[in-house]
Task: inverse folding
C-alpha cells in the first residue's frame, strides 16, 4: 500500500512538472487544441489509400492506375471496385472509369499498395473521414481518391522520392530499348557494306495464299520496292472466273481477344484455331499489368517457347487463367 502511494505521488510530481513547464516549453505539451491545432504526423503513418496522378493540368490522363484490378483482387476485405474506361469503339483506355473504395470496410492494411505494379496507389495520412451518412458517404470515388504526386511527396517524402527514382530508371530503360541501334562507325560501315549490298533472299508468295490474281500481280510488282527483295514463286492461283467478284483482302487479326472486358470463354473462342502462343495469350487477363514480369503477349510467348515454366504468374487472371494455361500446356 505504501509503495502504491509513492507511485501515485511520483506520477503527480511528473504531471505538475509538465503542467508548469508547459507554460515555458511547448515541447512539454502533450495535447493540442484540435482541430485548430494539429500535430504533424510521422512520415510512416497511414490512413486510407489514394490514387496518384502526375500532372495537375490533366489528372485523369496522367493518373498512374491502368485499371489492372490486381489491388481489387488482392484486397482482403474486398472493398475496392474498379471498372475500366473505354473509348467509343469499346477499346480499353487503360485507366479506370470507376474506382471506388469503401472506407467503412477498408482495414488500412496497405496490401493494395504492395501489390500495385505501377506505383499508382499509396496510403494517405488523412484521418478526418467522419461522415453523416453510413452508406454512399463512406465510399470514396475516383474524384475523391485522385491526388497529385506533389501531395504524395508532402506526406511521405522519402518514399515518394524513391518511387520517382524507380519510375525514372524504368522510363530510361524503356526508352533505351526503343531507341534505334547506334550508327556504325565509318570503318565498320565500310566493312559491312558488301554484306548490306548483297541481295536479300527472294520472297515467295505461296500458291495457296489467299490473293486474287490481281492482288498477286500487284504484290509481285511492288514487293521488291516495299521490302527490298524480289517476289518469286508467284505461282498464280486459279484466276477467278470472269465477272466473278474480287475476293476481299484478309482482314488484319489485331489480337481480337486482347481486351480485358471480355470473359475468358469469349477470349478463348476468338483464339480458336490459332497457334498455341496465341491461345495462351488469349487465356491471360489482357491487362498488360506486368505482374508476371512481361506484358500479356510476352508471357504467353515465354510459356510457349519454354523460357517461362511458371504458369501461375498472371495475378489478375488468377485461378481461372492458371486453369486454362494448365489445360493448354498440359502442365
Ligand atoms: S493495382 Fe495499381 S494499377 Fe492496378 S488497378 Fe490497382 S491501383 Fe490501378
Ligand atoms: S488498405 Fe487493405 S483493406 Fe484497404 S483497400 Fe487497401 S488492401 Fe483493401
Result:
Amino acid at each position: 500500500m505504501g509503495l502504491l502511494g509513492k507511485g501515485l505521488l511520483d506520477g503527480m510530481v511528473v504531471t505538475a512538472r509538465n503542467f508548469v513547464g508547459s507554460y515555458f516549453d511547448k515541447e512539454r505539451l502533450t495535447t493540442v487544441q484540435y482541430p485548430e491545432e494539429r500535430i504533424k504526423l510521422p512520415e510512416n503513418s497511414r490512413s486510407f489509400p489514394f490514387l496518384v496522378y502526375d500532372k495537375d493540368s490533366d489528372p485523369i490522363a496522367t493518373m498512374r492506375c491502368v485499371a489492372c484490378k490486381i489491388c481489387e483482387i488482392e484486397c482482403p476485405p474486398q472493398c475496392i471496385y474498379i471498372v475500366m474506361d473505354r473509348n467509343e469503339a469499346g477499346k480499353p483506355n487503360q485507366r479506370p472509369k470507376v474506382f471506388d473504395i469503401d472506407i467503412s470496410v477498408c482495414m488500412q492494411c496497405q496490401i493494395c499498395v504492395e501489390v500495385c505494379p505501377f506505383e499508382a496507389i499509396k496510403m494517405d495520412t488523412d484521418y478526418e473521414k467522419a461522415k453523416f451518412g453510413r452508406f454512399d458517404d463512406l465510399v470514396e470515388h475516383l474524384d475523391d481518391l485522385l491526388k497529385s504526386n506533389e501531395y504524395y511527396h508532402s506526406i511521405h517524402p522519402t518514399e515518394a522520392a524513391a518511387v520517382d527514382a524507380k519510375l525514372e530508371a524504368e522510363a530510361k530503360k524503356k526508352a533505351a530499348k526503343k531507341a534505334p541501334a547506334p550508327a556504325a562507325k565509318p570503318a565498320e560501315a565500310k566493312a559491312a557494306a558488301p554484306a548490306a549490298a548483297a541481295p536479300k533472299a527472294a520472297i515467295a508468295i505461296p500458291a495457296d495464299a489467299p490473293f486474287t490474281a490481281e492482288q498477286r500481280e500487284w504484290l509481285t510488282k511492288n514487293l521488291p520496292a516495299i521490302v527490298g527483295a524480289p517476289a518469286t514463286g508467284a505461282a498464280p492461283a486459279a484466276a477467278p472466273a470472269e465477272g466473278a467478284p474480287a475476293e476481299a483482302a484478309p482482314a488484319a487479326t489485331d489480337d481480337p481477344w486482347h481486351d480485358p472486358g471480355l470473359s475468358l470463354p469469349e477470349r478463348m473462342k476468338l483464339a480458336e484455331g490459332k497457334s498455341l502462343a496465341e491461345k495462351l495469350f488469349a487465356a491471360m487477363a489482357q491487362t498488360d499489368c506486368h505482374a508476371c514480369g512481361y506484358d500479356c503477349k510476352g508471357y504467353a510467348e515465354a510459356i510457349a517457347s519454354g523460357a517461362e515454366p511458371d504458369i501461375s504468374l498472371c495475378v489478375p487472371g488468377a485461378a481461372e487463367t492458371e486453369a486454362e494455361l494448365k489445360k493448354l500446356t498440359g502442365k
In short: The longest helix spans residues 157-178.
